[in-house]
Specification:
251 residues, alpha+beta, 2 domains, disordered N terminus
């Protein structure tokens, strides 16, 4: 008789084990401490236990928010998200979470239009998350984590809550807008110059004076706009015309 395998099935995705608010505190703590942060450091900053933080680190790593071995560091995305959460910048939080979700296939697959066509209750979506992650519904900590994932999708602006029915956000899911580590959007690129812009010209002042009878003289200032040309005949013809009509005194 074959020996029965008593090992629990391996998770296909590392769900968090804490509610969204605790995840937020952990992310902020990693972001504030910077690089090579120990569990003890994060525990002191967040007010949570080291065990609680450890149980969520796999999710934060898979989601691209932290990286490293025993001592972990917040990634650029993790720092931006932590800063936005700490300062309660809702738009930047939404953009960072959307960027995170769209980089993780497990999370983007939850937003399949075919599956979300009729909408889901939160309980139905949580059950689906546990199913595709291959986690028993009796694992209460992971059930809490599945609810946190739903909250992330809502906070990212990818789902809406329509009187208890979760639906895809109308239109194309918003693409994450990059936000720099100082919380500011990068400067816009300069607009391209039109290819049919006017050719440059050279402005040359020309002064001629005509004396009338009596003690007074009249000075006439003329501003010429010369075309940018390498053809010498253009300038020869121009100055011939000037001499004939302006400088010779002839009508």
């Amino acid at each position: 008789m074959a020996k029965q395998d008593t090992k629990a099935s391996k998770e296909t995705f590392a769900l968090p084990s804490s509610p969204y608010d605790e995840l937020s505190r952990i992310i902020q703590s990693y972001a504030r401490r910077g690089d090579n942060v120990s569990l003890a450091d994060v525990a002191r900053l967040s007010g949570l236990t080291e065990d609680t933080i450890s149980r969520n680190n796999a999710f934060l790593t898979t989601s691209g928010l932290i990286a490293g071995g025993n001592a972990k560091s917040a990634t650029d995305l993790g720092k931006r998200l932590g800063r936005a959460l700490e300062h309660e910048q809702a738009d930047d939080v939404r953009n960072c979470l959307a960027e995170m979700v769209q980089a993780v296939p497990f999370l983007t697959d939850l937003l399949s239009p075919a599956r979300m066509k009729k909408g889901n209750t939160e309980a139905e979506l949580v059950a689906h998350i546990l199913y595709v992650a291959d986690i028993p519904r009796t694992n209460t900590k992971k059930v809490t984590g599945a609810h946190a994932v739903v909250r992330i999708l809502l906070e990212a602006g990818l789902l809406t809550d329509d009187n208890g029915t979760l639906r895809l956000q109308a239109g194309t899911p918003p693409q994450a807008e990059p936000v720099s580590s100082n919380g500011q959007a990068p400067p816009a690129e300069p607009a391209p110059q039109p290819s049919n812009a006017a050719q440059p010209t050279t402005s040359v002042p020309l002064t001629t004076a005509a004396t009338t009878a009596g003690p007074f003289a009249i000075a006439i200032n003329i501003q010429l706009e010369l075309p940018a040309s390498t053809d010498p005949t253009v300038y020869e013809n121009l100055f011939k015309a000037l001499k004939k009509h302006l400088l010779s005194g002839n009508e």
